[in-house]
Design brief:
By secondary structure, the protein is mainly alpha-helical. The protein folds into two domains: 147 residues, Ribonuclease iii, N-terminal Endonuclease Domain, Chain A (Orthogonal Bundle), CATH 1.10.1520; 68 residues, 2-Layer Sandwich (Double Stranded RNA Binding Domain). The protein contains twelve helices and three strands, in the order αααααααααααβββα. It has a three-stranded antiparallel beta sheet with strand order 1-2-3, with helices on one face. A hairpin with a 6-residue loop joins strand 1 and strand 2. It is elongated and about 70 Å long.
Length: 224
């Protein structure tokens, strides 16, 4: 079977100084390839990487926000969910370096779940290679845009809920427009109260843009 893995190119795409080719290659080894070739798959690294990633993100949001425990958990789940991690694999064009079995190779579309596992396995490999520092460097670099939203989410925490609680009997709706490409989206959101625009927001995630729009609407209500 063709070996798709190229250590130097993968290392360059990751943008960090990983030393062990063996560890990184294992991170890119899908279970289908491992079963067919009697080698170790990336499942154990993915298991480790999941915990390391969780710690790094938890530490980051703890230091950068004043959210309570419940909202910290929600934000962490949002940051390390399948979709954003899969998008990073797509952006770095890493999926093509994976070692996959014959059957899996025939699938032209790889699932977000497999991409997410790959991301976590990479984090696990970097941690074993050089410790938490290297893993943190990779996570912060690749999740940087997501982390940039933390300040906005922190400033506008639960603005949507507060707006609804302030106007419990009003018809409040959010209208979003997406611009930019798949990897660099910008969301423009209007919040309408009884069909009147009362606030607008802009961010790289729809959720943050909605919170900003709701916060603007709340400030206008307070001024009145």
């Amino acid at each position: 079977m063709k070996n798709n893995f190229n250590f130097s190119e993968v290392k360059e795409r990751l943008g960090v100084n990983v030393k062990s080719e063996k560890l990184l290659k294992t991170a890119f080894t899908h279970s289908s390839f491992a079963n067919e070739n009697k080698v170790e798959s990336n499942e154990r690294l993915e298991f480790l990487g999941d915990s390391v990633l969780g710690f790094i993100v938890t530490e980051k949001i703890y230091k950068k926000t004043h959210l309570n425990e419940g909202n910290l958990s929600k934000l962490r789940a949002l940051l390390v969910s399948e979709k954003p991690l899969a998008e990073i694999i797509d952006k770095l064009d890493l999926e093509r370096f994976m070692l996959k079995g014959v059957g899996e190779t025939k699938n032209k579309v790889i699932s977000n779940a497999i991409k997410c596992d790959l991301y976590e396995a990479i984090v696990g490999a970097l941690y074993l290679d050089s410790g938490i520092g290297l893993a943190r460097e990779f996570v912060e670099k690749t999740l940087n845009k997501n982390f940039e939203e933390l300040a906005k989410l922190n400033d506008y925490e639960d603005a949507k809920t507060k707006l609804q609680e302030t106007l419990p009997y009003k018809n409040i709706k959010y209208y979003a427009t997406k611009k930019g490409d798949e990897f660099n989206p910008v969301y423009f959101v209007e919040v309408k109260i009884n069909n009147v625009v009362c606030g607008t927001g802009q961010a790289t995630s729809k959720r943050a843009a909605e919170q900003i729009a709701a916060s603007v609407a709340l400030k206008k209500l307070k001024e009145k």
